[in-house]
Amino acid sequence: MKAVTWQGHRKVSVETVPDPVIQQSNDAIIEVTSTAICGSDLHLYEVLGPFMTAGDIIGHEPMGRVVEAGSQSNLTAGDRVVIPFQIACGSCYMCQRGLQTQCETTQVRDQGMGAPLFGYSQLYGAVPGGQAEYLRVPHADYNPIKVGSELPDHRYLFLSDVLPTAWQAVAYTGLQRGDSVAVVGLGPIGQFSARIAKHLGMKVYAIDPVAERREMAARHGVMVFDTGEESIGQIREATEGRGPDGVVDAVGMEAHGSPIAKAAQLSAQFLPDAAGKAMMQNVGVDRLAALYSAIELVRRGGTISLSGVYGGSASPLPLLTLFDKQLTVKMGQANVKNWVDKILPLVEDPADPLGVDDFITHTLPLGDAPGAYEMFQKKQDGCIKVVLDPTLSPA
Predict the structure, then answer these.
(1) Cβ neighbours of 270 (radius 10 Å)
(2) How many other CB atoms sit within 10 Å of the CB of residue 31?
(3) pLDDT average, residue stretch 114-135
(4) Which UniProt keywords apply (predicted)?
(5) How far is CA 136 from CA 32, 90, 337, 373, in A?
(6) SS3 362
């Protein structure tokens, strides 16, 4: 089969690799019909190279149809399914508490990490990912989300990651109808975080340096601002001088405006593997401009929800400010199956309340992945969300 593989810093390629096979009785094999490039994939492309091996199949936002089902998978050939990005058992202590990313059955204990993720480095199990023609799905008796056959892929695809991640980001603010929330970063997660908050009746402000991203959010009733102190001042003024009740940081470790941390991150990519891993695990730092903005912006006693991925082990935090402002911070990988029941009716609603029809900016053949990664990383051609279609022929 054809699959998108990691080959080095800012380098992916489409290669012919062995087809996946059933390994356990609760496995399934799906033929991938749509698979998206996530902002988190850009962390592999840019800064997490020390934990990657050339040839790793990447991607964690796939859906498709079952072509082979293990005897204990609860699936049959022909089922249409969306695959959550984490692999969980559904029955352990953590899964039963809605913490599927901490699944005790599947935890990557040799790395000290939680549940494995599709296509996401040695840290998360080195599981072959979903930017491919076919995908082996472990724990298919629990993980896949069965969906109907009437609606197009794009209505369901983002149940794999983007929508649950955005829903959790808003839920973790603890806010209610009428409260105010600011979203820092209007990439895919920020777009839906803003729309979900708006759908739930909140006053929503959003900050992003890219005009096309601001324009997309504005189409959905979000008040948008460019980055900078002036924008923070305007949002604070609009919230009676206090700042919003909560802030969602939808940017993460590669925030703009952090040149020293960027240099430190990138230097690890060019060290020998062992040294690069040690640097990231022990003295790695994130680019924290977005988080610092969130801390500055949120009102005293407010909540910051981190949905952007952070990976540094030595990132400096302004604990004095966090303590003095009495802030609550909640974070973590999205527990996909914990939120799906709330989101599924919205993506199937003909009225499209979350604007799923207005999200994908580029649909490309799987073979065009190298150019798509570069375009997404450089924010070219108005690129906000790319979906790869393995059934299309390369341009």
Answers:
(1) 11
(2) 16
(3) 96
(4) Metal-binding, Oxidoreductase, Zinc
(5) 10, 18, 19, 23
(6) strand
Residue 386 has pLDDT above 90, yes or no: yes
pLDDT tens digits, 83-120: 999 999 999 999 999 999 999 999 999 999 999 999 99
Give the residue-averaged pLDDT of 279-288.
Answer: 53
Rounded to 5°, the CA angle 269-273-279 comes to 65
Long-range CB pairs of 212-216, under 8 A, 24+ apart, other chains included:
212/382, 212/384, 213/186, 213/187, 213/384, 214/186, 216/186, 216/191, 216/358, 216/384
DSSP designation for 124: G
* Cα R_g (the chain), whole angstroms: 20
Strands 328-331 and 303-306: parallel
Residues 296 and 325: beta-carbon distance below 8 Å:
no
Q: What is the DSSP string of 57-114?
A: B----EEEEEEEE-TTSS--TT-EEE--SB---SSSHHHHTT-GGG-TTT--GGGT-S
Average pLDDT, stretch 301-322? 86
Lowest mean pLDDT among 55-64, 285-294, 323-332, 337-346: 285-294
- Give the chain's domains with CATH numbers: 2-161+335-389 (3.90.180.10), 163-331 (3.40.50.720)
* Residue 159: closest CA among 227, 50, 63: 63
| Alpha carbons 246 and 252: distance in angstroms, whole number | 17
Q: For the chain, what percentages of helix, strand and coil (3-state, to nearest 5) are there?
A: 35, 20, 45
* pLDDT recorded at residue 255: 47
Q: Which residues does 235 contact at the CB level (< 8 Å), separation at least 6?
A: 182, 205, 207, 225, 243, 244, 297
Q: How far apart are CA 301 and CA 318, in angstroms?
A: 16
In angstroms, the CA 99 to CA 79 distance is 26
pLDDT-derived band at 264, boundaries 50, 70, 90: very low
